[in-house]
Hints:
Elements: H1 3-11, E1 18-22, H2 27-41, E2 46-53, H3 60-74, E3 77-82, H4 92-110, E4 115-117, H5 122-134, H6 139-142, E5 148-150, E6 156-158, H7 166-175, H8 192-203, H9 210-238, E7 239-242, E8 245-249, H10 250-254, H11 258-273, H12 281-293, E9 297-299, E10 302-306, E11 310-315, H13 317-320, E12 325-326, E13 330-331, E14 335-339, E15 345-348, H14 350-356, H15 367-371, E16 374-378, E17 381-384, E18 394-398, H16 402-407
Amino acid sequence: MSGAAALRAHFGAAPPDALGIAVSGGSDSLALLHLLNDWRGEGGPALRVATVDHGLRPEAAAEAAQVARLCTGLGVAHDTLRWSGPPARGNLPDAARRARYRLLTGWARRHGLRHVAIGHTADDVAETFLMRLARGSGVDGLAAMRDRWQEGEGVTFHRPLLALRREALRDVLRAQGVAWSDDPTNDDPAYARTRARAALAAMAPLNLGADTLVATARRLRDARAALEDCARRAAKAIAREHGGDLLWRRDGFADLPDEIARRLLVAGIAWMTGRDYPPRGAAMAAFLDAARAGRRMTLQGCVLSAGRDHLRLSREYRAVAGLRAPAGAVWDGRWRVTGGTGRATVAALGPAGLRACPGWRAGGLPHASALASPGVWRGDALVAAPQAGWPNGWRLELLRGFGDYVERLVA
Length: 411
C-alpha cells in the first residue's frame, strides 16, 4: 500500500476540512507531512503543524526550527510547543509522552482543530508489542495500537500510517530530496525501545521480525474488540450508577468470566477517579478476588463493598478529604454544585458533615459513600448536602454518567 492510499483508506470518503500534524523532524512524521501536503494540493484537508520541544535534548530547538523552515517553504502554518512543566520523575519517556499529548490537545483546541495526525508506523506497532511482552502484558497491552482515539474533549488523534514500514516512508523522503533528523536516543540502549529494535533485528531470521509481530498484534486487536463488546454488554445488563457510586448485581457478576469481571472493575475505578492507568496486575487480581468473595477492599482511592444483592464501588473518603473547590467549579473531577446563594466551598461531608446533617440516610447512600459525597460549606458550617437529602437550594451534577462508564470499557 502506498502512503497516499493509506491516508485515503484511513480518512475515508469524508476527511476533515482541517488537520493538525505533529512533526518532530524524524523520518516518520516528516513523511506524513509530505504525504498530507501532496493530498492538500489535490483537494485534501488544510494543514497546520506543531512540533513539541520537550527541552530534554539540546538539539531539539534546532530541529523544531528546521521543521518551521520546511513548513514555511510548503506554505503550511507551524507552531513550536514547549514543555515547561516540573521535571519528570520515574518513567521519563512516559512523562514526555503524556506532556506531548497534553500540549498537542491544547494547541488543537486553540486553533479550532478537531483532528490531529501523528506518524506512527508498523515498526512502532512491533516495537511496542515486544516492549509490552517483556512486561508480561495481556491482550490489551499486546493488541495493535489504535488507529484513532479521542484525547480529552473534542480532539481526535489519528495514526494513518500504521500499515506502512518506516523504510517505505524514508523512501518517500529520499524521492523528494528531504533530509530528516535522527534522535540520538534511538541508539541509546538505556531506552527500552532501542533494545526492542535491536531484538527485532536479531529475531528476524526466526521469522519473528516486525511483520510477524504486527500481524499478531492485529489479531489481538480483534480479540480485544470482542472482549470489549462482551464487557459493554455485561455492564448494561448488571451495572447501574447510584449517587455517584457503581453497583453490580452480585448474581450477574458471579456468572462472568474473570476477564470480563476484571474489565468491569478496572473501568469502574477509572470512571470514578479519572486515572489513565489501571492498577498493577497483583493489586487488580486481589481486587477481583475481593469482589468474588464479597469482601471490602480499597484500591486507588475507591472502596469496594458488598451488600446482599449488589457489589458497590464508592469513592474513598481519605482520597477526597483534602479536596476543596469553589461552588460552581468541578470537585473531585466529576461533581459540580450550583445554585444557592452567596459564596461557598465544596468539600466532602466527612464525619463533621454527617453530624451536621442527622437525616443524611434519607439520601439513600451507605455511610462510606455519604462520607465522601460533596457538601456545601461556609467555613466550618455545612450549608447543604445534596447527596444526603438536604439540597437547601443547591443542585448537584454528576459530570461522568453511566454512559461514560460504559465507554471506558473500550481500551
